[in-house]
Amino acid sequence: MYVWEGTDKRGVVMKGEQPAKNANFVRAELRRQGITPKIVKVKPKPLFGSAGKRVTPLDIAIFSRQIATMMKAGVPIVGALEIIGSGNKNPKMQQLVNAIRSDVESGSSLSEAISKHPVQFDELYRNLVRAGESAGVLETVLDTVATYKENLEALKGKIKKALFYPAAVVAVALIVSAILLIFVVPTFEEVFNGFGAELPAFTKMVIALSDFMVAWWWLILFGLVAAGIAIVMAFKRSPAFQHFFDRMILKVPVIGQIMHNSAIARFSRTLAVTFKAGVPLVEALDTVAGATGNTVYEKAVFRIRDDVAVGYPVNMAMKQTNLFPHMVVQMTAIGEEAGALDTMLFKVAEFYEQEVNNAVDSLSSLLEPMIMVFLGVVVGGMVVAMYLPIFKLGAVVG
């Protein structure tokens, strides 16, 4: 990216930014536009780099929507990429779009250009773009992909909201409890030692827990951090552990049902989008498996793919997995018979996405009183334990 300064034919000073391979290309482009370049230099990098400005799935969704809109308006793909790249505020996204534009300018197709960036553009995205190019409906496919990505991110946001709120409250409660046990309870213990009286059993239990925390807090902290790192590493590197974790979370009351509905919604929408774009069904199922967000459903989709490959209808293959509700199987069967599988799957996706929305809202309402009770028992219990001896002493004095 180059920054430039120059004057137009009226002598008015103008400034701007221009992506190019070198400064000479920028000068030539400016002269073509009737601007006399005075300064052309590489745009300086930010002092702290572009840390934290990673390319998110939402960035890719917005990129898809922008390029689809411009192509529908008749803007050539290279021009559309140039506009999107120069107007993006995220430096890494800007670099990504400019790299794609350079490849397309060099003669590559859009699918070939984005295939060089598999982290940002997953297999599903690449397959859809390739299918759109083959069928000559690239802008329509990109528009569909943008809608798909937006819906998927909204669904992920709902799931994160459902899981984050209780986890955050429990974490805060544990931190507050640890602070009370390490710093507050020992102060009360010194006061109680001066009483010379027998302490209540509940107070003794809290003091014993406090003594343990004061003596071994560093070991407990180290153990928690080590356990957290071990779980994350195992989840990333061990498919067996990831499958076990995903299977367990599906069995958790309320949360498990939300995860089931989420996986069904993602499966239905992803398969509908790929099938509508013209991707062959077996190939579409192969791509869809990784988009379900759960390894239990991922294995089920691979099984469906294998069954469909040898001639079974999709609905019969889905039924054999024992994961999909009867309504989903029946709607898939109706869609297959009517030759409108993608339409039926879109309806299934919309229904289950709404189910997730309702479940998350209900969960929030259900958790609030439970969290208040949890906080009252944990934090309030320690406060009561500390004041019991004082109440007992007051009764004796009285």
Automatic annotation (TrEMBL):
Membrane topology (UniProt): Multi-pass membrane protein
GO biological process: protein secretion by the type II secretion system
Transmembrane regions listed in the UniProt entry: 162-185, 215-235, 371-390
All residue ranges annotated as the Type II secretion system protein GspF domain in the record: 63-186, 267-389
Keywords: Cell inner membrane, Cell membrane, Membrane, Transmembrane, Transmembrane helix, Transport
Pfam families reported in the protein's UniProt record: T2SSF
Localisation per UniProt entry: Cell inner membrane
Cellular-component GO terms for this entry: plasma membrane
InterPro entries recorded: GspF/PilC, T2SS_GspF/T4SS_PilC_CS, T2SS_GspF_dom, T2SS_GspF_sf
Family: Belongs to the GSP F family.
Stated name of the protein: Type IV pilus assembly protein PilC
